[in-house]
Amino acid sequence: MKGDIYLIRGDLIKAEKEYEKLLEEEEQAAHLWSKSCLATLYLLQGRFENSEDQAKQGIELAEKLAEDGWKSGFHLSLGYLYLRSGNPKEALKEFDEARSTAIKIENITTQIRAIHLKGLSHLEMKSVDEAQKTADELEKFIENWINNKLMRYYYHLMGMIELERDNITKAVEYFEKAISLLSYQRRVNHDRHALFYDSLALVYYKMRNLEKAQEQYERISQLTTGRLIYGDIYAKSYCMLGKVFEEKGWKGKAIEHYEKFLGLWKDADPGIAELEDAKKRLAGLKNVS
């Protein structure tokens, strides 16, 4: 799809125009693609409210067309938005909806992703025991399936659980296991590399291992299809690289990466913590003689 090519190249204006063109087609399936792609684009830009609107419209259209595959996907997208916006309770509802719909059409991968994201929601609510129960359920579910590479979702969730428990070494081990099971980037709207690299980068940053944190955040910034689903993580990788370079005393590199992040989020919803922090840090660096 031409819009995806523009998105990967960073031409967001042309990408948006291409996605909007899909709404002019008579085939309703094209409209579902449009809603999905626009939701992804707006997530990258920090336009969470616009992304939420597209996901909700996608759910309504999918219900009208009896497209349960699309419906479960939109529920996942909406749940992820709620999770990233600090509303894990609403996220849980969406992930349950995604899973129940996926069960009807026997979509195993979507069920696994819904369980995985449900575990992350429990962690966001500081319910470590519930997250562990979800991880145990996820492990058993994947063990009964033929694609063992999907165990990366279990390892990632366990890494997040161990991180919450301050078991840093175990967290790193789980994240590295998860990353080792990633496939090559090749499928638009299917690759999810950014989420896995981001967690490992965060651990290294918390450990004050700036070299390894930089390495992982740069991996995210260099992704192609592997960063489209999690565009917010891709954008924030530049903000985190700005912090890393700032702490390393590399003022020019820090400014460059904060400006890249703020360029991607120039139309972002106001009041987002990362956005306001980056603005203050950039202003501070520019005011230093």
Set down the secondary structure blueprint.
Elements: H1 2-9, H2 12-21, H3 28-44, H4 48-65, H5 68-84, H6 88-104, H7 108-124, H8 128-143, H9 152-164, H10 168-180, H11 193-206, H12 210-221, H13 231-247, H14 251-264, H15 273-287
Helix pairs in contact: 1-2, 2-3, 3-4, 3-5, 3-13, 4-5, 5-6, 5-7, 6-7, 7-8, 7-9, 8-9, 9-10, 10-11, 11-12, 11-13, 12-13, 13-14, 14-15
Largest sheet: none
Strand proportion: under 5%
Strand segment count: 0
Helix content: over 70%
- According to CATH, the homologous superfamily of the domain at 68-148 is Tetratricopeptide repeat domain
- Reading the helices and strands in chain order gives HHHHHHHHHHHHHHH
Structural class comes to mainly alpha
Low-confidence stretches: none
Could you tell me how far the N terminus lies from the C terminus, measured between alpha carbons in angstroms? 47 Å
Global morphology: globular
Rg computed from alpha carbons, rounded to a whole number of angstroms: 19 Å
The count of helical stretches stands at 15
In the CATH hierarchy, what is the class of the domain at 68-148?
Mainly Alpha
Kindly report the average pLDDT value.
94
Which architecture of the domain at 68-148 would the CATH scheme give at its second level? Alpha Horseshoe
CATH-defined topology of the domain at 68-148: Serine Threonine Protein Phosphatase 5, Tetratricopeptide repeat
Oligomer category = single chain
Structural description of this entry:
It is a single chain. The protein is mainly alpha-helical and 289 residues long. Among the domains are: 1-66, Serine Threonine Protein Phosphatase 5, Tetratricopeptide repeat, CATH 1.25.40; 68-148, Serine Threonine Protein Phosphatase 5, Tetratricopeptide repeat. 75% of the residues lie in helices and 0% in strands. It has 15 helices and no strands. The protein has helices spanning 2-9, 12-21, 28-44, 48-65, 68-84, 88-104, 108-124, 128-143, 152-164, 168-180, 193-206, 210-221, 231-247, 251-264, 273-287. The mean pLDDT is 94.
